[in-house]
Amino acid sequence: MSLLTLEQVTARYGAAQALFGVDLSLDEGEVLALMGRNGMGKSTTVKTICRMLPAEGRLVFDGHDLARLSSHQAARLGIGLVPEGRRCFRDLTVAENLIVAARPGHWDMARIGALFPRLAERQGQRAATLSGGEQQMLAIGRALMTNPRLLILDEATEGLAPLIRAEIWAVIARLKAETGLAILVIDKSLRELRQVADRAAILARGQVVWTGAMDALDHETSLRHVGV
Amino acid sequence: MSREWIVNAALIAGLIAVPLWAHLSGEPFTITLATRAVIFALAAVGLNLALGLGGMVSFGHAVFFGLGGYSMGILAHHAQNFLPLYDGLFLIEGTKSMPVIWLVAILVSALAALLIGLLSLRTSGVYFIMITLAFGQMFYYFAISWRAYGGEDGLSIWVRNGFPGLNTLDPIQFYCLCFALLCAALWLSARIARSPFGLVLNAARQVPARVETVGLDGQRAKLVAFVISGAITGLAGALFADLNRFVSPTMFSWHMSGEIMIFIILGGVARLFGPVAGAVLFVAMEHVLGDLWDHWHILLGGLLLVIVLFGRGGVIGLLAGKAQSHD
């Protein structure tokens, strides 16, 4: 049984419809790359999963109907989000950003510190004073502190320096190899996605137009739908 | 030891030294002024929980201040006239006991804050300001029309209520009582700010949507903070009514809500001792400048303008610098 299932999911921003029947599924321990050009509905799909945007259709996570849940209830079920633009709690320290999200489970302060030594060094520092890369690490750490079963990374490497991007991708690969966490990743770096993702789903105009194994994503398909 | 800690300690020392000096030199009016400042500070400590920590710009906290005042007024009115408050299936009598009055004031204000919060926290920004203001005006006009308890003229209490073991008619003893309650409220406020609940509240103020995605119910945290905030301001209202031995609809007015907010802005929003510094400065200005010029509020307005434009940390920010992190 899939951990996450979306069937014919539609969503709209006021009068503008953004999703036109998205079908998607994700198994335990699987890494799925959600791809597509800008404005095709990737982040909107994430918002519907995290219950930040009302949606119609069938959304099931671990046997629970997500449509009945609020955003914080969905998170408590085990959906961890690393949002686009990081969105750390700027006035809180690094440690406070992590503590505030903490739920019982594998991930604790020590393990996050081991995963991101830079954060461990800056525990007492306010999030607003961190560099962009460190804020991204903090956003990932904060999501992991909720001890999710599904981690959603929305443009986690956007706007970061190449070395930091490499560090983030290494962490994602490590999470896949060591924890068996299901990961839904949105990114434009096809080369890195190929290294970590098991499957890909391509969105175009609010619908999934292609889905399959990452290896099966050929140059022609990626060029046509993703533009990379 | 941080600069803010030193400034806070100096404020506390001043609030101990000045009334003590006034008591020893036979200046009861100065003690009354200090009591007024301490009570205003207590009301503002309440609002600071909602405004500073939770980011809820409530323009209706006079509701809780007034409810606290009327809790005291109604209970004392019935006690002094030997009229039961309720004589139906069971008997409820008035009381002149401060602890009982405080408890009633806290419960009534907390209940009102719960109901108002449930409705108003569905909104945010300017709508939240307007809805809390509307509640304030509703209570204000209700109090004006409530003839059983004085209507527009308010309600006078002949003798200040009592506290076991103290002579509350003695200004310094009543001051000590109010000061102790202010210290307790400051302690509670500091504990809340450093607790996991305080972190959730702080996070919910900064990025409301994101706090939900880490599994936290930001709205519930805000509601709880609003209720605690209302309860503290209600307690201040009961003390204020006892200080003046008088309660009137003006305690519910939007001017009162504005003044409580001004104490915080003057002293420093979200700073623990900001409400104390602001209330002390306000009462000092009211007394000193008010003696010199009837239109002293113009100067207050000018000061507010300067603080909002150039010193958002208020007096505490000016003296102690930027806020430290919570580590």
Structure description:
The complex is a heterodimer of chains A (228) and B (327). Chain A is an alpha/beta fold. Chain A has nine helices and ten strands. Chain A has helices at 42-49, 71-77, 94-101, 109-115, 117-121, 132-145, 162-179, 190-196, 219-225, and strands at 4-13, 16-26, 31-35, 55-61, 64-65, 79-82, 150-154, 182-186, 199-204, 207-213. In chain A, β7, α7 (162-179) and β8 (182-186) form a beta-alpha-beta unit. In chain A, α3 (94-101) runs parallel beside α6 (132-145). The longest helix of chain A has 18 residues, at 162-179. Chain A is globular. Chain A starts with a strand and ends with a helix. Chain B has 327 residues and is mainly α. Chain B has one domain: ABC transporter involved in vitamin B12 uptake, BtuC, CATH 1.10.3470. Chain B has a two-stranded antiparallel sheet with strand order 1-2. In chain B, β1 and β2 form a beta hairpin. In chain B, α2 packs antiparallel against α9 (218-244) and α10 packs parallel to α13 (314-320). The A-B interface holds A 50, 52, 70-72, 75-76, 80-81, 83, 87, 89-93, 95-97, 99-101, 103, 123-126, 142-143, 145-146 and B 196, 199-200, 202-203, 206-207, 209-218, 325-327.
Short note summarizing the structure:
The complex is a heterodimer of chains A (228) and B (327). Helix content of chain A is 36%, strand content 27%. Chain A is α/β, with parallel strands linked by helices and 228 residues long.
Q: In the CATH hierarchy, what is the class of chain B?
A: Mainly Alpha
Described by strand count, sense and barrel closure, the largest sheet of chain B is: 2 strands, antiparallel
With strands numbered from the N-terminus, the spatial order across the biggest sheet of chain A is 6-7-8-3-9-10
Structural class of chain A: alpha/beta
- Main sheet: strands, sense, barrel of chain A: 6 strands, mixed
Task: Tell me the distance between the termini of chain B.
Answer: 13 Å
Question: Which regions of chain B are unreliable across 5 or more consecutive residues at pLDDT < 50?
Answer: none
- The number of helical runs of chain A is 9
- What is the ordering of alpha helices and beta strands of chain B? HHHEEHHEHHHHEHHHH
Q: What is the number of beta strands of chain B?
A: 4
* Cα distance spanning the termini of chain A: 33 Å
Task: Report the radius of gyration of chain B as a whole number of Å.
Answer: 20 Å
Question: What is the subunit arrangement here?
Answer: heterodimer
The fraction of residues in strands of chain B falls at under 5%
Binned, the helix content of chain B reads: over 70%
